[in-house]
Design goal:
A hairpin with a 4-residue loop joins strand 3 (58-63) and strand 4. 27% of the residues are buried. This protein is an alpha/beta fold. It has helices at 10-22, 33-38, 88-99, 103-113, 124-154, 175-183, 208-212, 215-224, and strands spanning 45-47, 50-52, 58-63, 68-74, 77-84, 162-166, 187-189. The strands form 2 sheets. A 5-stranded mixed sheet has the order 5-4-3-6-7. It has a two-stranded antiparallel ribbon with strand order 1-2.
Length: 229
């Protein structure tokens, strides 16, 4: 059988290579996020203690810092994957411009004041931050929806049963409901996977729930260390 050919943005590849070199390591192989995530979805598992079936067609979406990665998985295999040039950093840039502050401060403002389920917040500045975040997330959703519709129209019988989100920006307050209302599909932020176990010695303060809540940020890395062959 012919091997699949994958095209990856050069800037992302160079970034990972420079990171490994900066850490005095040797770059041996580069996994891609779609393959990493695929390795976590090859069995009937539980996600946040709810059953996930291989028979479902799910969009597993990484809401990252600079990019959004959309993966559609069915029967334990990625059927479709695309990268969108939107991410959490775009919210930070817009907030920084509007409030004339540094992007680092803008990110803190975003984390403190953003609540996508609320129409307005306590004061003008917090409401402005929330409105900026909503406008950017709507851009993401517009691009995501175009990809989902493309997949559904690509072949008769294609469908999407549910959306799972992960990555740093998936922790924005109210983002699950915000995406659900725009796309009209169930949306779940991944917090716990039944096929990912943590050593008790690595759980800070003996609180497994706290560490499980961090899983969403590290799923690409966890999938990448799984070697199938």
């Amino acid at each position: 059988d012919a091997l699949p050919i994958l095209v990856y943005p050069k800037t992302m590849v160079e970034g990972y290579y420079k990171l490994v070199k900066g850490l005095k390591g040797n770059a041996v192989a580069l996994d891609i996020s779609s393959n990493s995530i695929n390795k976590l979805f090859t069995y009937d598992i539980k996600i946040n203690d709810e059953n996930y079936s291989l028979e479902d067609t799910v969009a597993v979406i990484d809401l990252g810092h600079d990019f959004t990665n959309v993966n559609i998985i069915l029967d334990g295999n990625v059927q479709f994957t695309r990268i969108i040039n939107y991410g959490g950093s775009h919210i930070d840039v817009d907030i920084a411009k509007q409030l004339s502050i540094l992007e680092e401060e803008a990110e803190l403002q975003k984390l403190e004041y953003c609540n996508l389920e609320r129409e307005s917040l306590g004061d003008m500045q917090s409401s402005m931050v929330n409105d900026i975040a909503k406008a950017q997330v709507k851009n993401w959703i517009h691009e995501i929806e175009k990809l989902l519709n493309y997949y559904k129209n690509k072949e008769q019988g294609n469908k999407i049963d549910r959306i799972y989100i992960y990555g740093g920006s998936s922790s924005l307050k109210g983002i699950e409901t915000f995406i659900k209302d725009e796309i009209n599909l169930p949306v779940t932020q991944i917090q716990i996977l039944s096929n990912v176990k943590f050593s008790k010695t690595n759980i800070s303060n003996g609180d497994p729930a706290r560490l499980n809540g961090e899983l969403s940020k590290y799923m690409n890395a966890i999938g990448a260390i799984i070697r199938l062959r």
